[in-house]
Amino acid sequence: MSAIRVVAIAAGSHIFGGAHARAIEENGLEVVAAYDLDPARAHAVADPRGWPVVESLEEALATPADLAVIASPHPLHADLAIRALDAGMHVLVEKPLASRPSEARAMAEAAERAKRVLAVALQHRFREEVRRAREIVRSGVIGSIHRAVVVSTYPKRAEYYRAAPWRGTWAGEGGGVLLNQGQHDLDTLVHLLGMPTRVMGWARTRALPIEAEDTVEAMLEWENGTLGSVHVTSAASDPPSRIELVGSKGALRLTPGALDVSRHPEDFADFTAAPGGPFDPFPHGEPVAETGGAGTHSQIYADLVAAIGDGRDPVAPASDALPALELTTAIILSSHLGAPLQLPLDAGEYDRMLDHLISTTNHPGETP
């Protein structure tokens, strides 16, 4: 198979220059057009690599290519991806898939219509410890899941938002810490357990000078009775970020690069029904550490190249990334309504809320 030809859109963005450019080189892809609204930023990334820079989006989309990589602000993902798909390209978008579920669904429909791959940069799915945790949950090793806990912190200076004024705004980013950094955590949770059916969320702006939330707390419920909680913030530090699952036969704890697994001698359901003293302790298993690691953009590209060549879905196709986006928006909408919500989410209700916030708050480039 000849080298895949790439059109890089928003090639001057930090995430493209810092992660995608290296991954493209490592996987032997050929960039045939690099475009950014700021040509100087595009040249800074492209010139040292000998990549051609084009002056307009129209020129980029007219360039014969196999794959468009989109690293723009989230609200632009849908329009850019649909235009690239309609031009006959496969597409890789940075996470999140879009800023709204309605846009994400339109993107997935465009990919199906064009018979092209639409993938999302959710590199945490490639972490060895995440893959192993998914195997453990699916195999029933830790039994039926009783409780799920997500705690993730991404402490940021105010300068992070001043450096790119669209960040943290409703119009420019479509949300705050949950849509941006927390998307990895929610995607991993849904990847392990599936989609909750009920959510109550609290989104607050505690410390940072932004329109959208810098702190989120949520309570979740799954159809089978599993309960969970989510805490994501950029306004505090509580290392390490972690996902904990407690099951009837054991438990696991995911942290960056590591997985601790406990396997109990018996299922808790059997323990409750067995004869014995009323105060007998439950026999817990000792945690066993398993190694982890990886989870890189280079793995995303290797998988995407293989998926295109084999005619299969990538590890994170649009259809499979949509649930985490729906959960994100349900938490935010629940907070604004002050009420719990059933899932799947009414996308129209979320659109109306976001449109109202955009119309009544600042716009990208303005100081909130």
SSE inventory with pairings:
Blueprint: E1 5-9, H1 14-26, E2 30-35, H2 39-46, H3 57-62, E3 67-70, H4 77-86, E4 90-94, H5 101-114, E5 118-121, H6 128-139, E6 145-153, H7 158-162, H8 183-193, E7 198-204, E8 215-221, E9 227-233, E10 242-247, E11 250-255, E12 258-263, H9 268-273, E13 288-291, H10 297-310, H11 318-337, E14 341-342, H12 347-360
Parallel strand pairs: 1-2, 1-3, 3-4, 4-5, 6-9
Antiparallel strand pairs: 6-10, 7-8, 7-14, 8-9, 10-11, 11-12, 12-13
Q: If you had to describe this structure to a student in words, what would you say it looks like?
A:
Helix 8 crosses helix 11. 48% of the residues are buried. The strands form two sheets. The protein has a nine-stranded mixed sheet with strand order 13-12-11-10-6-9-8-7-14. It is 36% helix and 21% strand. It has twelve helices and 14 strands. The chain has two domains: 5-124 and 296-315, 3-Layer(aba) Sandwich (Rossmann fold); 126-293 and 324-360, Dihydrodipicolinate Reductase, domain 2 (2-Layer Sandwich), CATH 3.30.360.10. The chain starts with a strand and ends in an 8-residue tail after the last helix. The protein is α/β, with parallel strands linked by helices and 368 residues long. The chain has helices at 14-26, 39-46, 57-62, 77-86, 101-114, 128-139, 158-162, 183-193, 268-273, 297-310, 318-337, 347-360; strands at residues 5-9, 30-35, 67-70, 90-94, 118-121, 145-153, 198-204, 215-221, 227-233, 242-247, 250-255, 258-263, 288-291, 341-342. The mean pLDDT is 95.
